[in-house]
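Limitations
The structure tokens in this dataset are predictions for the assembled complex, not deposited experimental models. Users should treat interface geometry with appropriate caution, especially where small molecules or nucleic acid strands are included. An illustrative entry is reproduced here so readers can see what is and is not provided.
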Amino acid sequence: MKEIPLAKVFHLIEPGPVVLLTTARKGHANMMTMSWHMMMEFVPPLIACVVSPANYSYKALRTTKECVIAIPGIDLASKVVDIGNCSGPDVNKFEVFGLTAVRAKKVAAPLVAECIANLECKVVDTRMANKYALFVLEVVKAWTDPKRKERRTFHANGDGTFVVDGRTLDLKKKMVKWAEFL
Amino acid sequence: MKEIPLAKVFHLIEPGPVVLLTTARKGHANMMTMSWHMMMEFVPPLIACVVSPANYSYKALRTTKECVIAIPGIDLASKVVDIGNCSGPDVNKFEVFGLTAVRAKKVAAPLVAECIANLECKVVDTRMANKYALFVLEVVKAWTDPKRKERRTFHANGDGTFVVDGRTLDLKKKMVKWAEFL
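Predicted assembly:
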């Protein structure tokens, strides 16, 4: 995997793809499917996400204060839905779903080798965790797999249907204001 | 426009489309383009969004504590980008961009008639507004235009390119856990 500059991370999250969130606690690596997340800051890249206490990952996130956000391509859609439908303590999801856990550089949570990109994150603010299950994450290292051909992501409608990335519309010429980030 | 039950609002925001945010302050209606937002709760529907103090809308949001999130279809992409590239005090954006402001029921901010859906919102939490420019919104009324044919939304890559909704993948059969929300 190839490193991505942190200043480019927002390009991956801003479009709103379904992601996987991995954690590691007491030697047990786990992952969940997540769609409630957004960018909060460009540099250092901050991401907000909602992880319900009903999710096994909630406790891991609160205690270890680390995770990885992995961005799957459309080829993984079926697995990603199944991952969202089973719970962590009962199952080694990496094994069951044939996904490869790769050691991260700065966090104990593993990267997912089969994903388009992986973001190593530290939990930097839990002020809204009790009331809203909202966590503020800082991305401390980012990776992509440049050899991967399928780079289309997908978006959850929340009813079991997903919208696959279609064509790209290039309106760069109109983007004056944000030119510094291109 | 036809009302949408509040329990269905998350289907509109969870996929992560580019949206317009309208506000009204001292008789001046304004709008901005926004991509940093996420669902936080199903019912009542809560949405988190980041509106920078650099945006004219920031002050309106803080003082009036009301806004509308309007979801544009791909047919409005060019206008939506232009709206993001000009600032509120100088210009009546509804007039300049040929968009129709429609009176909302529960907030002073206007609906945008040309959009797929409109969500009337109250700001319910500003605890993270100073540090992160993060606002927590509660959707109090939701509308859609059922006559509208073009229902594809689009997603910002943050570099002046946008991904248009492609095909829909139906994995409903796999969605056991979330069945109650379908």
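Some entries come with short summary sentences. For this one: Chain B has one domain: 6-181.
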